């Protein structure tokens, strides 16, 4: 089966309006202008499961640049599958793990909503960088051309957290501590919360210490946006959580 026609065959017009609202496609919203086929994520995953072995980079190029959100998601989930299996051997001509990473990084302009970022970056980019230099993620967080590239910078560290490596999450959180966008606040808070699940004391030390070089002498938790803090301390005992919030 071919990925694109298989995705198109699952279009459900009755779901389009709801998905368009959910992913904020109205004027001035973060997903402005995006188009939907009305395909839910579990259906997309099933299509990817059936199609990824037969999908080439040429077809991924067609899909990841599609005007339809779900087709772009299908391309990214397929790329993750190809990447995962390419660790043992390429699944097609030239389809190595490194080629998958290069493809991903050269198409970030089309990874343009939070679900597209969150479902693809850490199982691909995070895994790739687990035993490599991670400067790339700092550059994305600091100088990303879009909020989505910046979000890739922080969310990719989920793989490090799951492997007990928290330093990059805290360091990249510092880069984004004063970011103006709510979607970055949520992402940073989410990753801090995940770091806290691994090491609560490390998260508390991060929150209560002062950002290096900051003349304000205010601990991080007093500086970060309210949403970021709420996400970060969500799993704390209620009394402790309220103490931070007050």
Please explain how this structure is put together.
The structure is a single chain. By secondary structure, the protein is mostly helical. The protein folds into 2 domains: 119 residues, no CATH class; 114 residues, Leucine-rich Repeat Variant (Alpha Horseshoe), CATH 1.25.10.90. The chain has 17 helices and no strands. Helix 3 packs across helix 5. The radius of gyration is 19 Å and the shape is globular. The mean pLDDT is 96.
What is the total domain count?
2
Range of helix content: 55-70%
Global structural class: mainly alpha
| Cα Rg | 19 Å
Shape: globular
H and E string: HHHHHHHHHHHHHHHHH
Give me the oligomer status. single chain
Average predicted local confidence, pLDDT: 96
Major β-sheet, in short?
A: none
- Amino- and carboxy-terminal Cα gap: 56 Å
Task: Estimate the strand proportion.
Answer: under 5%
